[in-house]
Amino acid sequence: MERSSNLTKYTLGLINPGDMLKGIRGGSTGFIKSILPYLKAKRVIIFGISKTTSKPWKSSFIDKNVEFIPICQLKYPSRVPMRLKVFINYMRYRKKILNSGVDVLYIQTPECCLPFLFNNRGIPIIYHQHGSGNPVALSRFFYARKFLFQGLFELILMAIYRYSDWIIAIDKLCLAKAIKNGARRKTSLLMNAIDTEKFRPNKIYRSKMRYRFDIKSNQYSILFVGRIAKTKGPARLLECIPLFRKLEIPFQIFLAGEGSYMPYIKNYVKTYNYGDCVNILGLIPHDELPYYYNMADVVVLLSEMEGVPMVVLEALACGTPVVASRVGGIPDIITHGKNGILVEQLTTERIAISIIKALTLNSDRNFISGTMSEFSAVRFVLCLSNIIKTVIHDS
């Protein structure tokens, strides 16, 4: 493979069902803000789904050479699983996307990948698998959680392994699954990455933010960043409050994000009169997250299913220890007892004890930040660029 990140000859098509005009968030945020600026592609087109008033197929630029095109408009929440709606609409507009002038399609979700595997006009398909678990098992639709639909999701993955031009595994579990199912010769392990110039320890950020939120010198700042969804575990963090109070631990909890579980969280805080110790921040712009990570004494993510969460990488890069569930690729980035604590069982007592252990780690912030050196955006971009060039030249 070539050793260059320069893709100025090529147009990259990114299939991402999010609405980038409503606000870039989650893993998409990290990729677009930290990775695409270094990719040096001739042009990047993100084909997404509009959840705003933006008109379908009306192009908008969200960065210097990053264009967002909503292919259709869908309402959320919906009585029909969004994954099914998304699949139908990418299938409906696949020809228009394939005729848009892209040289390669980079796809990060299975239901978005399936429509482009066959009769794709010779445009190579790169699938980036972001988790080894079956997300259908956690669907809010009871019928979607049935064995039949979980089996259908696995069949889709098998087709992707067989017919896509390259598989990028986000963690070792994904890599093993792809290799086991026949994708050995076209699979790479490439975890998420962060801009280590932006996400790093900063004492000035820390002091300013603690002053802004009136965090006392003897108080611990506990931060959750992510989608406010039941599966991400924000309620599990709040359930630790009685134990923290019993142990007389001074603390403030900060919840940053939006999601369908927010009404439950707000009602929970109101019902138990936790307004004095729980701060609901809403969605924080990605460029402001380094301030919050530096403010925090610990970041908590108690998900039921994950790949390699950007939140964990960004927090650790800022020198903040992380308490997280032992799922997906998280054990590949958190060294238990060194830069964070891995939670084996998501019970209130074990979570609370794990948070207390993280708050008393001897590791300083510069040491924790140093454990993220291998996750730099520059390294990620070089590997991704070489994969893109390989599949284009081989097609």
Description:
The chain is of the alpha/beta class and 395 residues long. The chain folds into 2 domains: 7-193 and 376-394, Rossmann fold; 203-374, Glycogen Phosphorylase B (Rossmann fold). Helices cover 36% and strands 19% of the residues. It has 15 helices and 14 strands. The chain has helices at residues 26-39, 82-92, 94-98, 110-113, 147-163, 172-180, 203-212, 234-238, 241-246, 262-271, 289-295, 310-317, 348-359, 365-370, 377-394; strands at residues 7-15, 41-50, 60-63, 66-73, 104-107, 125-129, 166-169, 187-189, 220-225, 251-256, 278-282, 298-301, 322-325, 340-343. Strands 3-4-2-1-5-6-7-8 form an 8-stranded mixed β-sheet, sandwiched between helices. It has a 6-stranded parallel β-sheet with strand order 11-10-9-12-13-14, with helices on both faces. Helix 1 links the parallel strand 1 and strand 2 (41-50). The model has no long low-confidence stretch (mean pLDDT 88).
Please identify the top-level CATH class of the largest domain.
Alpha Beta
List segments where confidence is low: pLDDT < 50 over at least 5 consecutive residues. Answer: none
Q: N- to C-terminal separation?
A: 15 Å
Q: Could you name the CATH topology of the largest domain?
A: Rossmann fold
| Chain-averaged pLDDT | 88
What is the number of independent domains? 2
CATH-defined superfamily of the largest domain: Glycogen Phosphorylase B
H/I helix tally: 15
| Percent of residues in β-strands | 15-25%
Radius of gyration from CA coordinates: 21 Å
